[in-house]
Design goal:
about 240 residues, mainly alpha, two-stranded antiparallel sheet
Length: about 240
């Protein structure tokens, strides 16, 4: 039987309104809907249960930091807000990394290498085009890359198939974490490209809509309480062996 999760349904509606507001230039829609996104996911975490108290505190703290970042980035064309938002999201990414690490994820060279190359490339592009943003955004990129590498560790979902360093989504919610991290990386990469290359109103709105859509999908997957639920002791022991 399918269980309806009202806070996740409300999240999807708020995400749709946020994306629509970005695509059409309706800032009021974003101000009304975007600050609700992470609190709705946090409410789902609390309501669903199953997450150990320590992990729940980390997850809720990460969502709190993401809420701050969401509000700051409602105006993505203000560089000061962009840097402050990146700082808030760095706290969130650090929280996610703690969760993956506690779940047994470890960095693997095959998973980390392409992300390191992408991080170096983005940093070089920022230094060439907008040096004042290079250091803070590169620092944030390091936290993003760390979380993405850990989320893509096959050990998080041992039964899932893994291709090119990413677990293929399956019935196990943990198998979707890698895709969530990948979507987050795409979203943040587009933020950099939008800042550097989008010049027309239409291109900026369209890019912002895609950024928000991929971001919302990423958070939906990464914060699923079932992916953070306590594993039975037997399963943990089997994984360690």
């Amino acid at each position: 039987m399918t269980v309806v999760r009202p806070f996740r349904v409300a999240y999807a509606a708020a995400a749709a309104a946020t994306v629509f507001g970005a695509l059409t230039g309706r800032d009021r829609w974003q101000w009304a809907a975007k600050p609700l996104l992470m609190p709705l996911l946090a409410a789902d975490v609390v309501r669903s249960g199953g997450v150990a108290p320590a992990e729940r505190r980390v997850l809720l703290g990460a969502l709190g930091a993401a809420t701050v970042g969401d509000v700051l980035l409602i105006d993505p064309d203000d560089d000061r807000r962009l840097v402050a938002g990146a700082s808030a999201f760095a706290v969130m990414q650090a929280g996610y990394s703690v969760l993956w690490w506690r779940s047994g994820a470890r960095p693997r060279a095959a998973v980390a290498l392409p992300r390191v190359v992408a991080w170096l490339g983005a940093g070089a592009l920022l230094r060439a085009r907008t040096p004042r943003l290079a250091v803070p955004l590169s620092a944030y990129g390091a936290t993003l890359g760390t979380a993405a590498v850990l989320a893509s560790d096959p050990a998080l979902a041992p039964t899932a198939k893994n291709i090119a360093g990413t677990n293929l989504p399956g019935r196990d919610p943990r198998s979707r974490l890698g895709v969530g991290a990948l979507l987050f990386t795409v979203s943040d990469g587009l933020i950099v490209l939008r800042r550097l290359f989008a010049r027309t109103t239409r291109s900026r709105r369209t890019t912002e809509g895609v950024i928000l859509a991929t971001y919302a999908a990423a958070q939906y997957l990464l914060t699923d309480p079932r992916a953070h639920a306590q594993r039975p002791a037997r399963s943990r022991g089997a994984q360690q062996r």
